């Protein structure tokens, strides 16, 4: 959070699916425990006060063998006038020595995911592809953690393949740098702070938006070298993997695909309450239109989907691709992740009796709050404020409407009520100023 830019507009707070953001002293504050790295706040911020930290491209110079991994959605960012070969050549010009699209070959991952169905004894198998969804389930729906497939994401498959191939050519593992081009903040967090492994196999992560701009400066007018060797294992299923129904289209049982984290939250609420039909497999993606809607992409997500669908039509199916030179069993074994542990944060108290008592008190507080969900208290809604009050993070007088009522009843002085507002929104926030940010002046 860039506190110099943030002016507490509440856009990020209102867009957060886990209510992880509050306004304190006029600045948005993110609760790291509740954050699932979905990036909705970054997308909503009108002044770019929220940003993601990523590795610089100069880091690749430390390695003799520089492997770039990127999802097929990266190719979908470029207009049709640019061929795959031209984009690949530009990547080589940047200094990478090896290129690999992470979704090849997905056939092994498909097989491994199907095998993991037997690991779930109750309810549907849930895809582990989207790290934001995995974190969401961990913290908000811990009872569903055991339904998550214990399989790593495609970029892990690609990283293991790259290392295996380079070591077969005589390279030392210390000479190999694996750099993942990511379309979203959740995948960045999955590499920096992996959920189901001690340390990620990936060396560094690079912002896809930043790389796109660099590629556009280096892209040749025509293809000069043959780069098809780098994508000879790519399949139709692999290209479409990151899009809605990319995973469910091959499962052949009762499945459902949901994209958009707010849609996912609504569905998981019902799933946890056994209010949905029986499913065998669930594909849940945080971004609208899947990874085509990632926050670190430059292109229109609908155009990206259209380009990827056209591209996929030119490629063979996964079961038609020969992978005889791969050490299949070695790679497939490494695809199995460690057990995913729940980390519930939506609990009022560890003690069940005290928690029930706090729920009753919270319900009484909600009866007194207006239910307008205005955000004037610095919390996203009245329910969140009631929770903050129970946890000792706010007071009843934090509600601007109750403040007026308390002043009228002479329970607090007007000066004290004004000071309470300044604690939330900052000093001089309510002074007349035609140039301050907010309303029509947002973004200036």
As a whole number of angstroms, the C-alpha radius of gyration is: 25 Å
Model regions low in confidence, pLDDT < 50 over at least 5 residues: none
Number of helices: 16
Per DSSP, what share of the residues sits in E-state strands of 2 or more residues? 5-15%
Widest sheet, order of strands:
4-3-6-7
Oligomer class:
single chain
- Average pLDDT: 89
Q: What's the count of strands?
A: 9
Keywords:
single chain; 4-stranded parallel sheet; alpha/beta; 444 residues
Layout of strands and helices, then pairs:
Layout (H helix, E strand, L loop, with lengths): L10 H5 L5 E4 L2 E4 L9 H5 L20 E6 L13 H11 L3 E4 L4 H10 L9 E2 L4 H10 L13 H15 L7 E7 L2 H8 L11 E4 H11 L17 H5 L14 E5 L1 H12 L8 E5 L15 H12 L15 H8 L16 H17 L13 H9 L9 H9 L5 H12 L19
Parallel strand pairs: 3-4, 3-6, 5-9, 6-7, 8-9
Antiparallel strand pairs: 1-2
Fold and architecture overview:
This protein is α/β, with parallel strands linked by helices and 444 residues long. Helix content is 36%, strand content 9%. It is built from 16 helices and 9 strands. The chain has helices at 11-15, 40-44, 84-94, 106-115, 131-140, 154-168, 185-192, 208-218, 236-240, 261-272, 301-312, 328-335, 352-368, 382-390, 400-408, 414-425; strands at residues 21-24, 27-30, 65-70, 98-101, 125-126, 176-182, 204-207, 255-259, 281-285. The strands form 3 sheets. Strands 4-3-6-7 form a 4-stranded parallel beta sheet, sandwiched between helices. Strand 6 (176-182), helix 7 and strand 7 (204-207) form a beta-alpha-beta unit. It starts with 10 loop residues before the first helix and ends in a 19-residue tail after the last helix. The model has no long low-confidence stretch (mean pLDDT 89).
């Amino acid at each position: 959070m860039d506190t110099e830019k943030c002016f507490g507009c509440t856009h990020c707070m209102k867009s957060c699916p886990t209510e992880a953001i509050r306004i304190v002293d006029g600045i948005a504050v993110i609760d790291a425990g509740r954050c699932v790295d979905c990036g909705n706040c970054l997308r909503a911020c009108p002044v770019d006060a929220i940003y993601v930290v990523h590795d610089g491209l100069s880091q690749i110079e430390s390695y003799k063998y520089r492997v770039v991994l990127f999802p097929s959605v990266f190719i979908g960012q470029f207009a049709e006038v640019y061929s795959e070969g031209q984009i690949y050549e530009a990547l080589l010009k940047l200094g990478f020595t090896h290129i690999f699209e992470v979704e090849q070959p997905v056939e092994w991952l498909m097989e491994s995911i199907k095998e993991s169905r037997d690991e779930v004894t109750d309810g549907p198998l849930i895809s582990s592809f989207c790290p934001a969804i995995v974190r969401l389930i961990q913290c908000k729906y811990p009872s569903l953690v055991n339904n998550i497939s214990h399989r790593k994401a495609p970029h892990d498959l690609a990283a293991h393949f790259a290392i295996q191939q380079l070591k077969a050519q005589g390279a030392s593992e210390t000479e190999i740098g694996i750099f993942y081009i990511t379309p979203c903040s959740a995948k960045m967090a999955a590499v920096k702070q992996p959920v189901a492994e001690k340390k990620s196999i990936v060396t560094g992560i690079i912002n896809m938006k930043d790389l796109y701009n660099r590629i556009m400066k280096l892209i040749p007018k025509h293809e000069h070298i043959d780069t098809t060797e780098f994508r000879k294992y790519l399949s139709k299923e692999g290209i479409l993997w990151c899009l809605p129904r990319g995973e469910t289209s091959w499962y052949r049982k009762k499945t459902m695909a949901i994209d958009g984290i707010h849609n996912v939250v609504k569905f998981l609420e019902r799933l946890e309450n056994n209010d949905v039909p029986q499913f065998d497999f669930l594909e849940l993606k945080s971004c609208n239109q899947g990874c085509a809607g990632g926050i670190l992409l430059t292109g229109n997500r609908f155009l990206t989907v259209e380009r990827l669908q056209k591209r996929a039509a030119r490629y063979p199916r996964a079961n038609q691709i020969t992978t005889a030179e791969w050490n299949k069993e070695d790679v497939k074994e490494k695809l199995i992740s460690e057990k995913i542990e729940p980390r519930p944060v939506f609990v009022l108290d560890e003690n069940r009796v005290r928690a029930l008592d706090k729920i009753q008190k919270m319900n009484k507080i909600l009866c007194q709050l207006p239910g307008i969900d205005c955000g004037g208290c610095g919390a996203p809604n009245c329910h969140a404020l009631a929770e903050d009050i129970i946890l000792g993070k706010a007071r009843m007088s934090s509600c601007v409407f109750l403040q007026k009522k308390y002043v009228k009843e002479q329970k607090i002085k007007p000066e004290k009520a004004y000071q309470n507002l300044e604690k939330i929104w900052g000093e001089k926030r309510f002074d007349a100023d035609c140039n301050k940010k907010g309303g029509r002046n947002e973004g200036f």
